[in-house]
């Protein structure tokens, strides 16, 4: 099998030492394994810089979407409405989850390259007293848009509504002040900025609001309160856990610490992203998002104006040279995406920019 580095927002390229952790088998009932679960929960609270008396952590089997669905279907009481802010595919996925669960909701849609207007958020909440929850994505990987959770969190706090944030592609890779942003439930995943492998999501939750949700869940396996109730006793997952992913995640947290924590990792990601955007802009690939709104995780680029440009041809060319990028997720304009998280360093970004340049030069030579 050919090996290559992933320029994607997760799954991402992991270190060899993280991969090696998965060579060990563990029993889910074993006390040593349960202690690893407790250790991870404690570490996540430390990374989040929140008080363990006020907040708690729940690990949930499955991808990040499982974590989002767990929160959205476990926390709202019967008849209460969720207000979704959506400017990308993952905001739209929240709406799908609520539709399937038959939970009342209201959606404020914005264009994929626009921020939400706080005045509109306030007005909608004022007009609808049934709204008790705001749910939104922090870093929308559809485009790379970094949404302003601080201003929306302030509104949620002022209006006394619960604030739910999908921080899938930002937690661990950039500083998030959970208390300052008034976040009640933050959801992320093992295979994102902490640089583990796929297998589970995790929720950093306001402890009292989680306790108050007992009995609200619309699902057995995704019942957030019941998962926490069992896990908080001794670290036991209610159902079979992804043991190898858990071991890898513990190692990934250790490596995050060695790198210098979230601040240093964020600096690396920001530097990678700046190099990428500058490099590809010079080659004529225009960014979809204005840089002031651009998150450091993944960037969306328009296709070049050349009518003969073929994304599949470029994708294969890049893959043959050791890297994999992402197709676009927009339906109205042709785009592609390049991520720069995981075990990706400035030399990788310089390499990928050279590969893009070589591809464009070869195509220009053939055309002439």
TrEMBL record:
PANTHER family: 2-AMINOETHYLPHOSPHONATE--PYRUVATE TRANSAMINASE
SUBUNIT field: Homodimer.
Requisite cofactors: pyridoxal 5'-phosphate
InterPro entries linked: Aminotrans_V_dom (IPR000192), NH2EtPonate_pyrv_transaminase (IPR012703), PyrdxlP-dep_Trfase (IPR015424), PyrdxlP-dep_Trfase_major (IPR015421), PyrdxlP-dep_Trfase_small (IPR015422), SP_NH2Trfase/AEP_transaminase (IPR024169)
Top-level EC class as recorded in UniProt: transferase
Keyword set, alphabetical order: Aminotransferase, Pyridoxal phosphate, Pyruvate, Transferase
Record PTM N6-(pyridoxal phosphate)lysine, positions in chain: 192
Similarity comment: family membership: Belongs to the class-V pyridoxal-phosphate-dependent aminotransferase family. PhnW subfamily.
Protein name (record): 2-aminoethylphosphonate--pyruvate transaminase
Reaction equations catalysed: (2-aminoethyl)phosphonate + pyruvate = phosphonoacetaldehyde + L-alanine
Keyword ATP-binding: no
Chain's role: Involved in phosphonate degradation.
Molecular functions (GO terms): 2-aminoethylphosphonate-pyruvate transaminase activity
């Amino acid at each position: 099998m050919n090996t290559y580095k992933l320029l994607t927002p997760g799954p991402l390229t992991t270190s060899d030492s993280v991969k090696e952790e998965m060579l060990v088998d563990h029993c889910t009932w074993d006390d040593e394994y349960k202690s690893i679960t407790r250790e991870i929960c404690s570490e996540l609270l430390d990374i989040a810089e929140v008080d363990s008396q006020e907040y708690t952590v729940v690990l949930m089997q499955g991808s990040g979407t499982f974590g989002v669905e767990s929160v959205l279907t476990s926390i709202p009481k019967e008849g209460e409405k969720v207000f979704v802010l959506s400017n990308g595919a993952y905001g739209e996925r929240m709406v799908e989850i609520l539709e399937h669960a038959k939970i009342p909701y209201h959606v404020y849609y914005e264009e994929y390259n626009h921020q939400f207007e706080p005045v509109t958020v306030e007005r909608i909440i004022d007009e609808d007293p049934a709204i008790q929850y705001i749910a939104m994505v922090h870093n929308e990987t559809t485009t790379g848009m970094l949404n302003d959770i601080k201003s929306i969190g302030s509104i949620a706090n002022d209006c006394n509504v619960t604030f739910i944030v999908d921080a899938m592609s930002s937690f661990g890779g950039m500083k998030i002040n959970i208390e300052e942003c008034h976040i009640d439930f933050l959801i992320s995943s093992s295979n994102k900025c902490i640089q583990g492998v796929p297998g589970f999501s995790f929720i950093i939750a306001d402890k009292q609001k989680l306790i108050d949700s007992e009995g609200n869940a619309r699902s057995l396996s995704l019942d957030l309160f019941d998962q926490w109730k069992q896990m908080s006793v001794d670290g036991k997952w209610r159902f079979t856990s992804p043991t190898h992913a858990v071991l890898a995640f513990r190692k990934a947290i250790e490596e995050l610490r060695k790198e210098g924590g979230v601040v240093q990792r964020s600096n690396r990601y920001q530097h990678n992203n700046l190099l990428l955007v500058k490099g590809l802009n010079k080659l004529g690939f225009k960014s979809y998002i204005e840089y002031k709104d651009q998150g450091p995780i993944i960037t969306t680029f328009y296709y070049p104006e050349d009518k003969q440009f073929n994304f599949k041809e470029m994708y294969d060319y890049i893959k043959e040279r050791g890297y994999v990028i992402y197709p676009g997720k927009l339906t109205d304009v042709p785009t592609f995406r390049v991520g720069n998280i995981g075990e990706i360093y400035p030399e990788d970004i310089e390499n990928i920019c050279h590969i893009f340049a070589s591809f464009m030069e070869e195509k220009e030579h053939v055309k002439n």
